[in-house]
Amino acid sequence: MNKERIPALFGSNVFNEETMAQYVPFEAMQAWRDCLKNGKPLTLEVANDIAEGMKNWALERGATHYTHWFQPMTGYTAEKHDSFITPAGSGKVIMDFSGKALVCGEPDASSFPSGGLRATFEARGYTAWDPTSYAFLKDGSLCIPTVFCSYSGQSLDNKTPLLRSVEAVSRQAVRILRLFGDTTTRRVTTQVGPEQEYFLIDKKLFLAREDLRLCGRTLFGAKPPKGQELDDHYFGVIHPRVSAFMQELDEELWRLGILSKTKHNEVAPSQHEMAPIYCDVNIACDHNQLAMETMKKVADRHNLVCLLHEKPFAGVNGSGKHDNWSLATDSGKNLFAPGSTPSQNAQFLLFLAAFIKGVDEYAELLRTTVACPGNDHRLGAQEAPPAIISIFLGDELDAVIDAVVGGTDTDYVDMKRRQLRIGVDILPHIPQDTTDRNRTSPLAFTGNKFEFRMLGSSQSISGANTVLNTIMAEELSQFADILENGNNFQEDLHELIRATFRDHRRIIFNGNGYDEAWVQEAQRRGLPNLPTAADAIPTYLMKKNVELMTRHGSFTESEMIARHEILIEQYCYVIRIEALTMVDMAQHLLLNAASQYTASLCDTIISKKQAIPGISCRVEEALAASVAHLNDQLLQESAALKSAVELAPTKTDEETLRYYYNEVFLRMNSLRAVADQLETLTASDFWPYPTYCDLLFPV
Ligand code: ADP
Ligand code: MG
Question: Which of 117, 187, 444, 598 is the most exposed place for a label (fewest CB within 10 A)?
């Protein structure tokens, strides 16, 4: 593509501020800016002006419809399209779009998960424009980013709690900044850059596998002779077909104003990554949803399929999403950047202390934000962070903490002081980490931000960020309470930071998270270890979690109860669908394939013996016997799995969750083991679907 075109192309499908200014009257623009800056609600008059401008812009670009674009608790996005047409008498229509239609929509939402929040007689859901996120054009529709709530105002989506948590953390962070003499910052916002991993496979091969079509991952598949052991794919030369996909993806993302920046091959064969430049978390979340959707769409045009599942293939790395997270003031100052003066450093250490304390106190809650069946295949499996939450700070900051807490010897060269006085001393240089980073940590400090590495590739980033924001709000509010009421700020600050580091050091771990010894060590430290989603989800409603989220307004209690129910429901549904797909594939394809192969071997034996009496048929006999034996096992295992699903309890509660893990999921593994053995023995002509070799190493 012509390089000169990119700046013009960028954001061309977005009704951004600059475009808005061309289509919306000046006064309405000012009112909209005031709404963003000071949270003032928009009047209907202003909404009408903006709607008119939006419509004109969209019509000029060929749009015929508009849609409120929202993020229900499925983790995906939803849209219901209405055309702009309005009857104008005499059988004619005009294209119309009112402020009311912009600001509020009323989709019939009875089929979205609500965890019981919406009684069926009151099926309506409401969508309301989020004016902090620009409208955009997609497939001939004007898309308006919106929140989605029930008739009684309970949130039914992933955007609302995120926006609330952004407010909460901003409120508390500003209190802290005031204590450090900052009188100008009005807002603090969370900055997020999510790195997105994905797989690309050939569409024909994808369509040939029921498991990929229905579940987004392979439920069967023997290990190919080659995996990722040679590390020849990571950062490797990008295949022309993939490169063409990536170019078109970038172009589409740029049109949507998404700052797609980095692309490269990932560790596993056929695995890739896209990372945008960070921005406000609300926008980052919208953009990540759009990016995932665009990846799928663009892949399709290239006869590829983009797999966003956390673990499409056993035996090679799965896909995650690194959530790079920091806090910045409205003037763009990063609150996690170590400063160059004692006062800046003190402020940095206070934010750092708040983060450490929050993660230590609410590790279970953070763990639940990444709890989904797909992620269970990654976390703790030597390819992604362990399921135990800990923070990696690196040697330099660890030495600082030693020095602040005092008394502990540190041999780190740059940190010669034994006691660091906060607000008086300068910190040693803390490098932005580059190469020797710890890749095994769930939450790594990377110079001026935290990288939360536990998210699964298919997940919305909103849940994790809502929790990160809210725990930060909580700790900052506790700190502000103490510091606002003290009489010696320097002394109080020093003592607060020292005590916090001392009391919460257990969450800091700079070692190898893949090491078995860490599990023991974490247990000794009393850190929660919740290896599976079935272990994590029950902690969601712990009293401290509900108190935290309700205190800061991120959730109401009933919203949390609903979300807990949805987490369970979705876990059980996914496992159930996977199990039934396995049974279906085993019973409809595999049993028959193995039986046909056995029959063919037997035919060979008969014809060989007829042709040459006394000839050895040892190979055919041994193979036929093994295949027949395994096939018998396959029948038994698939029948057992089927009845396990049939006997599953139907109530949406923690007992059912446990059942699906213990009785269904674990059985799926046994069925798979048999099928995969069978695959290695069966001649390729007889095997009914593409193998790992076909899928991962296309010609
Ligand atoms: P990697 O982790 O692969 O080395 P980078 O260091 O380039 O990648 O950054 C990864 C992501 O972190 C990018 O999306 C980048 O924009 C984002 N990022 C960089 N600085 C910040 C920050 N201060 N706050 C939030 N995200 C950031
Ligand atoms: Mg990274």
Answer: 187
Spatial contact of 182 and 194, defined as CB atoms under 8 Å apart: no
What count of other Cβ atoms lies within 10 Å of the Cβ of residue 582? 26
Helix (H) or strand (E) holding 324: strand 320-329
Can you tell me the distance from the alpha carbon of 418 to that of 410, in angstroms, rounded to the nearest whole number? Answer: 7
**How much is the average pLDDT of 635-643?**
98
Beta strand 188-202 with 279-280: parallel, antiparallel or unpaired?
A: antiparallel
Confidence class for position 30, pLDDT limits 50, 70, 90: very high
Q: Look at residue 123 in the predicted model and tell me its pLDDT.
A: 64
Computed from CA positions of residues 175, 181, 184, 189, in that sequence, does the dihedral angle turn out positive or negative?
negative
What Cα–Cα distance (Å) separates residue 85 from each residue in 59, 81, 95, 96, 141? 11, 12, 5, 6, 13
Residue from 449, 450, 453, 468 whose mutation best tests the ligand 1 pocket (most atoms within 8 A of CB): 449
Beta carbons of 653 and 568 less than 8 angstroms apart? yes
Q: What is the whole-number distance in angstroms between the Cα of residue 277 and the centre of ligand 1?
A: 7
DSSP 109-120: -TTS--TTSS-G
Residue 380 to residues 93, 387, 507, Cα–Cα distance (Å): 59, 5, 17
27-36, 282-291, 545-554, 584-593: the lowest-pLDDT one: 27-36
Structure tokens at 520: 């023991």
CA separation for the pair 272, 305 (Å, rounded): 13
Which of 278, 333, 451 should be mutated for ligand 1, with most atoms under 8 A from CB?
278
Instruction: Please provide the average confidence, as pLDDT, over all residues in the chain.
Output: 92
The dihedrals phi and psi of 288, each to the nearest 5 degrees, come to -65, -40
CA-wise closest residue to 468 among 336, 589, 380, 375: 336
Rounded-to-integer distance, Cα 597 and Cα 429, Å:
67
Q: What does the block give as tokens for 271? A: 């695995």
The alpha carbon of residue 236 and the mean position of all alpha carbons in its chain are separated, in whole angstroms, by 25
Residue 380 gets which letter from DSSP?
A: T
Structure tokens, 46: 């202003």
Neighbours of 266 (CB within 10 A): 21
Q: From the CA of 451, how far away is ligand 2's center (Å)?
A: 7
- For β-strands 65-70 and 141-150, DSSP reports them as parallel
CB 370 within 8 Å of CB 467? no
Taking only the tens place, the pLDDT of each residue in 270-307 is: 999 999 999 999 999 999 999 999 999 999 999 999 99
Angstrom distance (rounded) from CA 104 to CA 83: 16
Alpha carbon distances (Å) from 414 to 395, 421, 428: 10, 16, 6
Q: What pairing do the DSSP bridges indicate for beta strands 450-456 and 320-329? A: antiparallel
- 305 C-alpha to center of ligand 2: Å? 24
Task: Put residue 459 in one of left, alpha, beta given phi > 0 → left and psi -120 to 50 → alpha.
Answer: beta
> Is the pLDDT score of 563 beyond 60?
yes
H or E segment and range at residue 250: helix 240-255
Six token digits for residue 400: 């600082």
**E-strand stretches of 372-515:** 391-392, 443-445, 450-456
- Ligand 1, atom 19, residue with closest C-alpha: 278
pLDDT at 594: 98
Q: How far apart are CA 579 and CA 585, in angstroms?
A: 10
If you average pLDDT over residues 623-652, what whole number do you get?
A: 97
Q: Are 496 and 476 in contact (CB under 8 A)?
A: no
- Which range has the worst mean pLDDT, 87-91, 574-578, 595-599, 623-627? 87-91
